[in-house]
């Protein structure tokens, strides 16, 4: 049996963008009957919201697209950096924070901005919706869906 591809989505609080990304990616992988190929998780750089479900606005927007989010927020650990094959961050601050925890070049090759997998997203960033309106959460959902498709294409599976 082939080894699973281990994918970790990372944002600041692990209650808005990375759970949305996890849910969107799991959904597309399920639709394509590729669940057996992946291990998928998400976390935050901060630990501010440890143990919490995703933000109610994140869950509402995901549910409108048929995605039920049950993930509980957790903080990134140093073990994650070695365990996962892909470390997918949402913005420049996440990139800086995770990059500063990495001390070997092999691990650094696993770090990507998730937004870079959407060819139409010039900024390469999934913007933080936390202080925005529901519209910002819808935008995040649209972006993570497009990036999920792009990331699967990139993997070529
Ligand atoms: P996330 O959004 O990083 O996409 O989960 C945020 C969630 C919480 C906070 C900031 C951003 N906060 O400051 O508590």
Describe the structure.
This protein is of the alpha/beta class. Helices cover 42% and strands 13% of the residues. The chain has helices at residues 17-31, 56-64, 78-83, 92-101, 105-108, 134-155; strands spanning 5-11, 38-44, 86-89, 111-113. Helix 1 (17-31) links the parallel strand 1 (5-11) and strand 2 (38-44). The longest helix is centred in the C-terminal third of the chain and has 22 residues, at 134-155. The chain is globular and about 40 Å long. The chain binds 4-nitrophenyl phosphate. The site of 4-nitrophenyl phosphate (4NP) has 11 residues, from loops. One of its GO terms (cellular component) is cytoplasm. It comes from Leptospira bouyouniensis. It is found in: Cytoplasm. Residues 5-154 form the Phosphotyrosine protein phosphatase I domain.
Brief descriptors of the model:
157 residues, alpha/beta, Rossmann fold, 6 helices, 13% strand, globular, binds 4-nitrophenyl phosphate
Summarize this, please?
This protein has 157 residues and is α/β, with parallel strands linked by helices. Helices cover 42% and strands 13% of the residues. The protein has a single domain (5-155), classed as 3-Layer(aba) Sandwich (Rossmann fold), CATH 3.40.50.
